[in-house]
């Protein structure tokens, strides 16, 4: 059977998209519309893992109503910030961390790029760990093998699925996410129906209110755990949008897609956690496994399948983008090879945590806060940069330090460093099994916001983790003031750029 020239051209175009590295996406391949952004964001965030945040919020000693307001505000706000970052993808046709070269310089971008890569690796690993632990716990309840061998097999199989799916590229991932959306959404509703009887409204409503500082701390954790955890990859999917797509629509579909499931899941998780103290404690070590403990036996396998699929869905987005970030750092390898490297790191890190680490939640949350500070600074700088710009990016100059964006923007780099130093001084390590972060919080006592006694931090503000928000605001405000003139010169200046060199050096997959 012969192939028509048109069919051959379409097949070739699709292959290029699947193998797309960090180079500029041609206009012929920018066929997505804003509503298409709903599918990857919803599928990656519909995970029942979101219910476990009910237990985490309870740890801040706030009432159910306070936790609900904090959860809704933190989720929507953080994903809206992702939506703003996504606007840059439409304007520049390249991945998020390549776009940040406009604000940091072609070589200066490697500073936030390294933070971004570490953050993505951490998220992928945490999702794989959660899926592995959930598999062992469910197998245990079913009376099947649940020892070391089971965990190793689960770890390897889950990691392999994540890597293979991410290697296959944009179209495959988008199709996979649209399918997973319907499957996981339906089964998650089923889980809620089966467990709603465990909610004790009298116990939930009797929880006393907490302080303003506790609410702020809970808000920071929600923002860091949801939208801010994705913000460094937010433009990786919008780069396939039509150039004339509405900015408002891009922000809306990012926000709606990312927020709608977590809002329902976290509130339902709050109801479960506030109703059952034993369940709340179990979630600390094995979130998905603990949630499975309140299900009837016949529902365990479907629950496990859906839980693992939702975790894999989020990890696929993360490892695809972490591979792009690795390329943006100057690693000259094909994108599939970059995904394979990240997959190897993910597997080894998962094995270490599952078999050698004593606790999962403490190091995980400490990790989120520590990397969340510089990542928040980067996000503030990027959001300000996007709001300052009135013209599309010079896509070729993003790959050539001789162009309008230069090699280094030392003001942006200094802002990120300053914001991080201040931010780390306003957060504390709250976990005994993460002693590697005990150096944090050095500004709290000088500013009269708390005291570190023999039993640990005293007062309410140390637990609020103000440093994440402060870091974001320093980056945002500092860039608006200090780099306004730089952005104006970049958009109006006449810079010579060697287009051929830019495209080759850009990292074609």
Automatic annotation (TrEMBL):
Keyword flag Transmembrane helix: yes
Record InterPro entries: Pur-cyt_permease, Pur-cyt_permease_Fcy2/21/22
Membrane topology recorded in Swiss-Prot or TrEMBL: Multi-pass membrane protein
Transmembrane segments: 38-58, 64-88, 151-170, 179-199, 211-231, 251-274, 294-327, 339-361, 367-388, 408-428, 463-482
Signal peptide boundaries: none
Subcellular compartments: Membrane
Keywords in alphabetical order: Membrane, Transmembrane, Transmembrane helix, Transport
One Pfam family matching this protein: Transp_cyt_pur
Family listed: Belongs to the purine-cytosine permease (2.A.39) family.
Name this polypeptide is given: Purine-cytosine permease family protein
């Amino acid at each position: 059977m012969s192939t028509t020239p048109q069919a051959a051209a379409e097949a070739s175009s699709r292959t290029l998209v699947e193998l797309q590295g960090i180079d500029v996406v041609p206009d012929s391949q920018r066929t997505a519309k804003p509503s298409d952004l709903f599918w990857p964001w919803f599928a990656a965030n519909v995970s029942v893992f979101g219910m476990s945040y009910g237990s985490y919020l309870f740890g801040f000693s706030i009432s159910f109503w306070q936790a609900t307001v904090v959860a809704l505000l933190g989720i929507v706000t953080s994903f809206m910030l992702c939506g703003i970052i996504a606007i840059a993808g439409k304007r520049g046709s390249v991945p998020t961390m390549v776009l940040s070269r406009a604000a940091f310089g072609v070589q200066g971008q490697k500073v936030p790029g390294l933070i971004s890569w570490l953050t993505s690796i951490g998220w992928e690993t945490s999702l794989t760990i959660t899926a592995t632990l959930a598999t062992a716990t469910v197998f245990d309840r079913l009376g099947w093998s649940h020892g070391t061998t089971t965990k190793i097999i689960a770890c390897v199989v889950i990691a392999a699925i994540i890597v293979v799916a991410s290697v296959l590229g944009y179209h495959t991932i988008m199709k996979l996410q649209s399918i997973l959306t319907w499957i996981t959404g339906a089964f998650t509703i089923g889980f809620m129906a089966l467990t709603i009887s465990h909610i004790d409204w009298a116990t939930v409503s009797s929880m006393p209110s907490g302080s303003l500082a506790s609410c702020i701390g809970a808000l920071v954790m929600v923002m860091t755990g949801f939208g801010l955890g994705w913000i460094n990859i937010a433009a990786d999917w919008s780069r396939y949008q039509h150039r004339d797509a509405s900015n408002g629509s891009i922000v809306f579909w990012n926000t709606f897609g990312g927020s709608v499931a977590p809002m329902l899941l976290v509130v339902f998780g709050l109801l479960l956690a506030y109703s059952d103290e034993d369940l709340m404690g179990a979630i600390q070590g094995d979130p998905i496994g603990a949630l499975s403990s309140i299900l009837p036996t016949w529902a365990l396998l479907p629950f496990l399948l859906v839980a693992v699929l939702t975790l894999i869905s989020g990890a696929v987005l993360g490892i695809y983008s972490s591979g792009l970030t690795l390329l943006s750092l100057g690693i000259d390898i094909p994108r599939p090879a970059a995904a394979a490297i990240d997959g190897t790191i993910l597997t080894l890190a998962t094995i270490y945590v599952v078999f050698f680490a004593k606790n999962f939640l403490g190091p995980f949350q400490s990790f989120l806060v520590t990397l969340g500070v510089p990542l928040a600074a980067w996000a503030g700088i990027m959001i300000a940069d996007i709001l300052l710009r009135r013209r599309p990016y010079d896509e070729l100059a993003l790959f050539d330090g001789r162009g309008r964006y230069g090699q280094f923007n030392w003001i942006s780099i200094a802002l990120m460093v300053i914001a991080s130093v201040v931010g780390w001084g306003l957060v504390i390590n709250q976990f005994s099994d993460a002693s590697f972060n005990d150096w944090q919080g050095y500004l709290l006592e000088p500013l009269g916001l708390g005291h570190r006694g023999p039993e640990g931090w005293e007062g309410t503000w140390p637990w609020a983790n103000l440093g994440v928000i402060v870091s974001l605001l320093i980056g945002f405000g500092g860039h608006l003031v200090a780099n306004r003139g730089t952005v104006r010169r970049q958009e109006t200046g006449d810079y010579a750029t060697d287009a051929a060199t830019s495209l080759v050096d850009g990292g074609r997959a």
